[in-house]
Amino acid sequence: MHRIFQTFIDRLCESTDVMALRACMAEASAALDLNCFAYLSISNKPNAEPQLISTYPPNWTEHYLRNHYERLDPVIAAVLSSPEPFEWGTDAESKQLSTLQRRLFDEAAESGIRCGFTVPIHDNQGLIAAVTFAAEERRPKFEQCINEHARVLQLMAMYFHAHVRRKLVSRLVDGVSLSPREFECLEWAAQGKSAWETGRILGISRHTTAFHLDNAKMKLGVRSTVQAVARLVASKPMIR
């Protein structure tokens, strides 16, 4: 398990886009004999679309998002109500489900999603997310993995969410949305790092660092990095 977890962390740190992040978690899940996974992030901002990264069957995920099933899903309802990981199954407590919720579970089962282990993630940036490791049925290997490695799976889920937020989610500076990389370069500039030093830290060139800082300055409507940093520092309590 230690080797799988360390490889997962290494791959996660190297990932820079959705495809790489998906492949990283998929590889770790497969190594643990877990069929598939899904990461779903829900913002508290009005009309914000959920973000989904998964290895679930595409026809199911498209259907799920198109019908806004995150508003109906009993698993997501449980995620919203508690931060503790939990197991679930399509046949569990069916009497407590509405007709629409039972239909959702039936449709998921048709796509091979019948049971799972879900890790809720409640962060302080207005996001609620969940990582689910799912299976077609409760096979012994699946149950054994959940029973023996629940806490490690919870850590993996939390690390995954943190990297998705840092690498894929835009950040606000005084109401202006910057890309994750623009925000990252500006934060290092705020700590007194030069473009060359920031590039070394982030594994990019000085020219690329300068490019991201120039974009940040343009979006913020300022001419110098010092002015951009001042906007960043002034907006710190408002960052989302």
Sum this structure up briefly.
With 240 residues, the chain is of the alpha+beta class.
Describe this structure in words.
It is elongated and about 60 Å long. The longest helix is centred in the middle third of the chain and has 29 residues. It is of the alpha+beta class and 240 residues long. The protein folds into two domains: 167 residues, Transcription factor LuxR-like, autoinducer-binding domain (Beta-Lactamase), CATH 3.30.450; 68 residues, Winged helix-like DNA-binding domain superfamily/Winged helix DNA-binding domain (Arc Repressor Mutant, subunit A), CATH 1.10.10. α8 packs across α9. The model has no long low-confidence stretch (mean pLDDT 89). The protein contains ten helices and seven strands. Helix content is 54%, strand content 16%. The strands form two sheets. Strands 2-1-5-4-3 form a five-stranded antiparallel beta sheet, sandwiched between helices. Strands 6-7 form a two-stranded antiparallel sheet. The two termini are 35 Å apart.
- N-to-C terminal Cα separation, in Å? 35 Å
Beta content? 15-25%
Which value, in Å, is the CA radius of gyration?
20 Å
Give the % helix: 40-55%
**Number of separate domains:** 2
CATH architecture of the largest domain: 2-Layer Sandwich
Order of helices and strands: HHEEHHEHEEHEEHHHH
For the largest sheet, list the strands in their spatial order.
2-1-5-4-3
CATH topology of the largest domain: Beta-Lactamase
User: Treating each run of at least 4 consecutive H or I residues as one helix, how many helices?
Assistant: 10
Low-confidence stretches: none
CATH class identity of the largest domain: Alpha Beta
* Arithmetic mean pLDDT: 89
Write out the CATH superfamily name of the largest domain: Transcription factor LuxR-like, autoinducer-binding domain
